[in-house]
Amino acid sequence: MAFRFSPSYWRIVLGLCCMFTLVHTALSTPPEDPVRCVSGNTDCSVTNSYGVFPDRSTCRAANVAYPTTEAELVSIVAAATKARRKMRVTTRYSHSIPKLACTDGTDGLFISTKFLNHTVQADAGAMTLTVESGVTLRQLITEAAKVGLALPYAPYWWGLTVGGMLGTGAHGSSLWGKGSAVHDYVTEIKIVSPGSVNDGFAKVRVLSESTTPVEFNAAKVSLGVLGVISQVTFGLQPMFKRSLKYVMKNDLDFDDQVLTLGEKHEFADFVWLPSQGKVVYRMDDRVAVNTPGNGLYDFLPFRSQPSAALAIIRSSEEKQEIFRDATGKCAEATLISSTLFSTSYGLTNNGIAFTGYPVIGSQNRMMTSGSCLDSLQDGLTTACAWDSRIKGEFYHQTCFSIPLTQVKSFITDIKSLVKIDQKSLCGLELYNGILMRYVTASPAYLGKDTEAIDFDLTYYRAKDPLTPRLYEDFIEEIEQIALFKYNALPHWGKNRNVAFDGVIKKYKNAPAFLRVKESYDPDGLFSSEWTDQILGIKGNATIVKDGCALEGLCICSEDAHCAPTKGYMCRPGKVYKEARVCTRVGDINA
Q: What does pTM read for this prediction?
């Protein structure tokens, strides 16, 4: 497939060149605290790491508390419970896209785990590690490595906290062992919840599979509605190494390969580039700890990047949207994906240079990254690419898991859309394509219920919520095919509102979870309007108003939900006729 290079092509080349000069640079401006207060710790607001929630609302609270010990945490929860104040937990970087950090009204309390970031106990003999809930994934794997232990599976971004991972069901990619979900390697959870007068208004519970299996399986993916997780104990494995190589192929037999690769390679995943007709296979296996190799995975898009280059790239994409320059998007997507592949995505054989595959390194050096967080203040000259203080990446993220038995059919549906217009999904490829990871069934009540593939789609979001996107109907149709045709489960920490409408009905163990919730917090002090909506307690996750479908707040049922004055009308899907999407009428997506 040949694409004409648009004028913005050369701006992207410049931006990429600047980005890759920072291959070994640690200087950057770290993200600011997601909680901001007008005065001290009072009159506060919270946002996510991207600066905007899906509905663009502002979440406020009267105060924020920063406990540094479990005793302080218990005291804070007790005082708020006694005063019958609403509470929600916030984390160091607040990476959940939906409004999980929000409390109701303006009189509530944010409880930040920013300073609950200590290792409690490492037991090499028992192969366990106990940490506080504010410990980041990076800290967790580093502390484990010090005693020769490894967490076998984890998300690829190390800026998540232990409590945040348990709150949303974060995972890596594997069908092996207990699967790739972090919470399935937890052996004990200590949680602080509202208590009675006799409890001193706060109750501390220690949960485990052997002693409290029902409550334990509720707490492993909790959405923060059971209280504040204080400490977590992980059951770990002896340190091992991984041998990784990437292979790019055409996607002709991709739908068949997906069904078997996860059985052949323990840490397999895929990056699918559907408009290019290509897929990148991650062939990633466990090898003995004494295998030669000191590889390091420092994923390029997670490194510090020059703010000026990020602004150029964002401006280029905005212009492509304004002028409907699909050809330019496709050219730049091809450039970006080929550059990332040719630079091995940031893999090095010795922490300095890439000399060839396979790259072999210890689990703690290969499993996750995020070096833009490991940085000094430089006045925002450089930053994480999505830092809301600069003109950088601003996007939607749609993420869902589809049962492995139905993945082939789903891939066929996406290929059918691409056949209608080959340029339609280049916008996904600008954000490194569709990431596909393996997940397995979990005993957690709000965890995955079967072997599945998790599809992660990242794509352009306009600063103006009423501005339609180029080819937005194609991505909306994919979203609806997944959610409704295949009954996909959305990732609790990602997605737009439409993914969560009626979602709790998809979980067979939801009644058991809600019974534990009622027992732990009968007054709903740790619940919010958002959690009530997604748990099916009260209200709906969708918001119906003019333009609501443009940002995934609703599924359109009339033209006003799209952008009729800009030519976008509510129409049936192209492949999945039951879908209702915002389509540009007239010279459709030309």
A: 0.95
